[in-house]
Amino acid sequence: MILAIAAAVLCAYVAPAAAGSGIPEVKAYLNGVDAPSILAPTTLFVKIFGSIFGVSAGFVVGKEGPMVHTGACIASLLGQGGSRKYHLTWKWLRYFKNDRDRRDLVTCGAAAGVAAAFRAPVGGVLFALEEAVSWWRSALLWRTFFTTAVVAVVLRGFIGFCRTGKCGLFGEGGLIMFDVSSTKATYDTLDLLAVIFLGVVGGIFGSLYNYCIDKVVRTYSIINERGPSFKILLVIIISLLTSCCSYGLPWLAPCIPCPADLSELCPTEGRSGNYKNFQCPPNSYNDLASLFFNTNDDAIRNLLTPGTEKRFKLPTLLVFFFATYGLGIITYGIAIPSGLFIPVILAGASYGRLVGNLLVPLSSLDVSLFALLGAASFLGGTMRMTVSLCVILLELTNDLLMLPLMMLVLLVSKTVADSFNKGVYDQIVKLKGLPYMEAHAEPYMRNLVASDVVSGPLIAFSGVEKVGNILHTLKMTGHNGFPVIDEPPYTDAAELCGLVLRSHLLVLLKEKTFTKGRMMRRSGILSMFKAHDFAKAGSGKGVKLEDLNISEEEMEMYVDLHPISNTSPYTVIETMSLAKAAVLFRELGLRHLCVVPKTPGRPPIVGILTRHDFMPEHISGLYPHCKTHK
Predict the structure, then answer these.
(1) Which SS3 state, helix, strand or coil, does residue 491 take?
(2) Which option is the CATH number for 1-163: 2.60.40.1220, 1.10.3080.10, 3.40.190.10, 2.50.20.10?
(3) What percentage of the chain carries pLDDT values higher than 70?
(4) For residues 612 and 433, is the Cβ–Cβ distance under 8 A?
(5) Where in the sequence is the signal peptide annotated (predicted)?
(6) What is the pTM of this model?
(7) What does the pLDDT look like over 76-110, one tens digit per residue?
C-alpha cells in the first residue's frame, strides 16, 4: 500500500496526465491533438517512477502502455530541443522543431516503447503503423525500424550483462519472454473449431471488458474531480482490495501433491517459480498461490508452460480468470500509470488454458497453446488490433507454427467484438474529450455543407493592422488562427491575403516592429528575425500574452502582417460537402481550413473550419435532428 500511495501522490500532485495507459494520449497527439502536459518532462518522470511503484505494489496492471508513453515523452523532449525549464537544451536539435519531424520522433518513441516492453522490434514498428499513427510515410517505416533495431541491440546487451541475476527480474527468458516453441503445433478440423470458439468467446469477453472499463472510468472521473486527496483514497481502496484478493483467494484452493517426475524444485523456493507452497504441508503446492504470488510476467509464464495439463485445476483457472478480469477493470482509471496489456493477457491465458484442459481428450494441441490463443483472442477483443498483435505474440513466444491459428483467432475475436463497441483505446480517447478525427467521414456529413458548421463570428485582421486591435483580439479570444484580408487602397477590392497564427503574432508584437502610419515594410521586418524564432515552441516555452509590454502610444501604431502570413492557406468553397471537407482536413493534417464564398461581391472569407467543427457533439448541437451517434 505504501508503494501504491507513492505512485498515487506522484500522479495526483506532480503530473495528473501520467495516470492511465498513455497510449490513447499518444494516439491523439499523433492525430494532431496537442493536449497540455501529455508529453511534458514531469509526465515522463512520473510515468517512469509511478509505473515502477504501481507494478511493484501488486496491482493488476502492466508496464507496456506506460512504456509506450515514456518513449513518446523522451522523443518529444528531443523534438523540442530539450527542456529550458530544467536546463536541458541542445541547439543541434533545433532541426526537429517543426510539427512533422516532432510527430515522426514521437512515432519512433512509441514504437521503441513497445519493442522494449515486449522485446518485439518488428511488433513495435507494426504497432506504430496500425494503432498509433494517423499519417504514415515510407520514410517513417525505416526510421521506426531503425529505432526498434537499436532497442533490440541495447536489450540484448543488457540481458547478456544481467544473465548472472545481478539485475533483479530483468533478463528472465532472454529476448524470448514466454518460449512455447518446444511444443509441436499439430492440429486438425476439430482444433480449428475450438480456435474459432475461443475467438468468439474472446470477442464477447473483450467487448464486455471495454464496456465495463468505460463505466468504471466515468465513475472514477467523478471521484477524481473532487481533488488529489480523493484520488489517493481511491488508490488505497483498490490496493487493499487487490491485496485481499491476492492473499485471500489462494486459501480456497486445495493443496496438490508435487508431481514425481519433475526437473524443477517443488515446492518452489524463492520469489518466482511454478510451485508455491503457500500454507500447504511439505512436498505439496497451492496452484492458485502459484499464480497470485508471482510477478505478472511469471504468472503468464506459468500459464504458458507446455506439457503441464494437470498443474492447474479447473476451479483454480476459473477463480483466477474472474479475479484478474474484475481487478483489471476496477484498477484502470485510478491515479497510477497502468497498462492494459498484462491484465488482458493474464485473463485471456487463464480462460484459454481452461478451455484447453476441457478439450484435452479431444484435441491434439497442448494446453499452453490454448492459453496463448486465449490471450490472443482477448487482446483482439479489447484492442481490435490484428497484424501488430499477431507479430508481438509470435515474437514473445517464439512459435512461428502458431501463425495460422493466431491469425484466425485474432480476426474472429476482432470481428465479433466490433459488432458490440469500439476498441478500448478509442473509447478512452472519447472519454477524455480529445477531438480525435477518424480517417473516414461519418454518413451524416454527406447531408451538410462546409458553411453549415462554421462557428461565428469571424474575426479577421487587415494586412496592415493597428497594434491595439491585435492585442484586444488576442485577449478576448482563444483562437489560434486569423484570416488576413487586404483592403483598398492596397487592392482594388477586399481579398483574402492569407492566414496568421497566434504564436507568430505574439513573436511579432514582442519585437515591436511598428510604424506610425499604415504602410507595408515586408523585407524590413523579416531581417529582424531568425528562422527558429517562429519554430514551434516546446511546452510552456513560447511567447505568452503576459510577456508583452506595450505602451498606450504603441497601441495606436500599426504593424504589417504580410511577412508572417501563410499566403497560400488551404481553402474550400462554402457549398462543398462536409464529408469531403472532413476527409481533406484529416488527410492533409490541417489545423485551419478557410471557407470562401461561392459568389462574388461578398466578404472574401465565410469562416474557418477547425477540428472542433467536425466533432459530432458540435454538429448535433447545431442540428439536433442529425443522427451523429450510432
Answers:
(1) coil
(2) 1.10.3080.10
(3) 91
(4) no
(5) 1-19
(6) 0.90
(7) 888 776 656 655 666 656 666 677 888 899 999 99
